[in-house]
């Protein structure tokens, strides 16, 4: 009898916990993109802008996990990046993280423009090169109306009443309000509404923004749904209940307890069945959410080597959920983390800024090409994951990290004598020759620089970061393509005309060679003792005529 009682108690507790937990987990992040708008001014300096933008997103990400809201300011001057992100008030923190993950992968599509904003049905994100945190209205304000179903006058009256109510309530409730109003003359029809101001606004600005939204939203009637996407707030009404359930409400918890007691008191078998059913359903739901779109799952089968396809959950666990302590660095296309697999293998995981689920076919095609390239002077790609909330690339882990950490640091630079530097130069050259001439598919890297040359435990060079690489058929010698790379390392003809050949990599290699023997960074010389870049200074005729070249060589 005691065993039966214990089983009942256990099932009782488990079922209560599962049902209560499902209120926060089994919700809807509403990650559908409603509108993306990009600025019209190009970034001032990509080598500064991109790292600033990435750092902004990382800082905001940390805040979003805690409060569902975050701001950040990174940098100085024209390339300063100001960022803001916020989830709407009915989202749980878990769903908020999922919505923000989608936003942060879409907004970078505005590059090379220095600003942009994205509205999703569950969250908002904006980035600029100036402080916009107190703005509540602007020329980009817009109403987005449904166009499928028209409603009668009773619905329109209920919609106006519901919207007006949240306009009045939100400014006094930290900028957030939600609600619903029944449609007169109906038994089961209501209008559902949500309003949310960005938390940087004061009460007066929030009210002004929502009042403006109220006027705009009336233009959507008699349609069954409408949204207003303002500079400082978001508002939506609909004839469908899109709102997530209020968490922790006393009445709902009471109902759960009553249901549980009724089930437990009837039959133990029913309790066990319901418990198992809820558990399995919840697990399948979580797994489906983490796997991402079905399309990406199908496309993953296109990988030529099935072992390349890592589960997102495996990589998330390997990095401690991408803990800051495991962060190795960041570049133009992603943040890199150190991970340890269950078998003890150390790996490097690049967390891409762009979510390649939107171009999953291209992503897997690139993985197939790059994974087939094997050379002692190329970083080996171990696999990828494109079916979770973010796209990930998995590489071999190299303990000495990147070359720039040594050649631009006077103290660490002493670890690289001339013999080691020579070997690094030769190794890099051999890796490039393989990419250009000996691989099955000709690959032009386009971003050869010190930070993309990694060093193993014996300081052997390995070329990394094929994020900017492009593959070409052998019969194409000149390719017109979008300009990509790092300023100061790009060949003049490529920068001016977009004409891309292997010569672009050779030019970048030449710049790297100068940096190796001088210990000076090409792009940094402008802000230090020289008025021109390192390349401009070195190739100046007077240096050779006066025999001053040795003055620029590093002393080891």
Automatic annotation (TrEMBL):
Cellular component GO terms, alphabetical: membrane
Localisation: Membrane
Ranges annotated as spanning the membrane: 256-281
Chief place where the protein resides: membrane
One Pfam family recorded for the sequence: PK_Tyr_Ser-Thr
Keywords tagged on the record: ATP-binding, Glycoprotein, Kinase, Membrane, Nucleotide-binding, Phosphoprotein, Receptor, Repeat, Serine/threonine-protein kinase, Signal, Transferase, Transmembrane, Transmembrane helix
Alphabetized GO MF terms: ATP binding; protein serine/threonine kinase activity
Binding site for ATP: 350
Annotated ranges, domain Gnk2-homologous: 31-132, 137-242
Membrane protein topology class: Single-pass membrane protein
Domain Protein kinase stretches: 322-556
Keyword ATP-binding among UniProt keywords: yes
Signal peptide: 1-27
Reactions accelerated catalytically: L-threonyl-[protein] + ATP = O-phospho-L-threonyl-[protein] + ADP + H(+); L-seryl-[protein] + ATP = O-phospho-L-seryl-[protein] + ADP + H(+)
Name of the protein described by the UniProt record: Cysteine-rich receptor-like protein kinase 2 isoform X2
Organism: Vigna radiata var. radiata
